[in-house]
Amino acid sequence: MQAFVHEYGELKLKDVKEPVAGEGEVIVSLRVAGLNRRDLYIPNRRGDHAGALTLGSDGAGIIDSVGKGVKNVKIGDKVIINPSLRWKLESAAPPNGFDILGMPDNGTFANKVVVSAEQVEFKPEHLSWEESGVLALSALTGYRAMFTKGQLKAGETVFIPGAGSGVATYLILFAKSIGARIIVTSRDKKKLEQAKKLGADIILDTESDWVSQLENETVDLVIDSVGAATFNRSLEVLKHGGRMVVFGATTDDTVNLNLREFFYGQYHLIGSTMGSRQELKAMLEHIKNYSIHPVVDKVFKLSEANEAFKYLEENHQFGKIALTIEN
Ligand SMILES: NC(=O)c1ccc[n+]([C@@H]2O[C@H](COP(=O)([O-])OP(=O)(O)OC[C@H]3O[C@@H](n4cnc5c(N)ncnc54)[C@H](OP(=O)(O)O)[C@@H]3O)[C@@H](O)[C@H]2O)c1
Fold first, then answer.
1. Which one, of 321, 324, 323, 325, lies nearest residue 37 by Cα?
2. Cβ contact 50:5 at 8 Å
3. What is the mean pLDDT of the chain?
4. Ligand 1: which of 141, 165, 298 to mutate, judged by most atoms within 8 Å of the beta carbon?
5. Which protein residues touch ligand 1 with a CB less than 6 Å away?
6. What is the rounded distance in angstroms from the CA atom of residue 303 to the CA atom of residue 156?
7. What is d(CA 82, CA 287) in angstroms, rounded to the nearest whole number?
8. How many A from CA of 7 to the centre of ligand 1?
9. How does strand 25-34 pair with strand 268-271?
10. Best mutation site among 315, 316, 321 for ligand 1, i.e. most ligand atoms within 8 A of its Cβ?
11. Considering only CA atoms, which residue is closest to atom 39 of ligand 1?
């Protein structure tokens, strides 16, 4: 079978051995895989001396074979993969042993992937293959950041910089579904218009003066994953006593924080990452109840994965990027 791998510093399609299901495991024959920014970071993290690793955290497909003891799914079932490994129940932080599929384990940019049977859920019936393949990682991260950690309620206002990001598009859809007010920023006019169509109430240029434009707004919650480029400015628009959830740092990890302004403002700064299987199930129920569809910006073939990486790296996306896989 074929897989898109990172091997000795190179990203390439390669013939690899088919996986075999061990006890409690399943083989998923993939129809679609989804790209995440994490996939772009992995080559740097691994360096130029590591052997082949199949990239990819998100995917949807059909159960191809099952190992001994598997009871929750059978051959032929349509499933999505939960990339949040070994985190079953909601908890304040991931348990020991938690990892994300696609490093160190081989991921979804391949004809087939082997995962524990506990890492698959039935494909939502209202979603296409493309929508299902780009769902889990970003929607789960957004769901935990917005509801478990951010505690967003109907009638509150949420501020989201970087409207074009994969996770941000889910945040807009989730906030809209519960009747919250949504303010987003983007550096791209077209993305701002797309965000408005999706449900954003106020759209702002990322480079503009947010404080003066939002002087009549009360921001209850900020969800910022852009990092150093926006962190301090996001904090400036948050109401005193408000909540700020951070789950990513696309631009830079390190920020300067004025502690005096922080404690006078009595802000709550909350870290979040991925989510548990329990939260994934709650998210799936939520998107079913509210008929939420992921925003699929562009679909590439697995053989075009290098182009898809470039498209994401250059921030052209509004929403998610899918890779279709022929089996
Ligand atoms: N901890 C976790 O579990 C977890 C899970 C998922 C993602 N993440 C992290 O969260 C971040 C977002 O993920 P994603 O997949 O949604 O990202 P993404 O689709 O790659 O989008 C990143 C967005 O950041 C904005 N951006 C990039 N450079 C910028 C700059 N210089 N100034 C202002 N804005 C800039 C862009 O928004 P505009 O183009 O609209 O301006 C872009 O759309 C990433 O860092 C990712 O690694 C973490």
1. 321
2. no
3. 97
4. 165
5. 36-38, 137-138, 141, 162-168, 186-188, 191, 206, 225-226, 229-230, 247-251, 273-274, 312, 315, 317
6. 44
7. 16
8. 25
9. unpaired
10. 315
11. 164
pLDDT digits (tens, 9 = 90+) for 208-259: 999 999 999 999 999 999 999 999 999 999 999 999 999 999 999 999 999 9
Three-state secondary-structure class, residue 67: coil
Q: How far is CA 297 from CA 205, 315, 323, in A?
A: 21, 12, 11
How do residues 158-211 score in pLDDT, each as one tens digit? 999 999 999 999 999 999 999 999 999 999 999 999 999 999 999 999 999 999
- Taking the centre of ligand 1 as the mean of its atom positions, its distance from the CA of residue 176, in whole angstroms, is 20
In the chain, the amino acid numbered 174 is F
Location of structure tokens 């190179």: 10
Token pair for 59: 């995917």
Alpha helix locations (H) across 54-134? 129-133
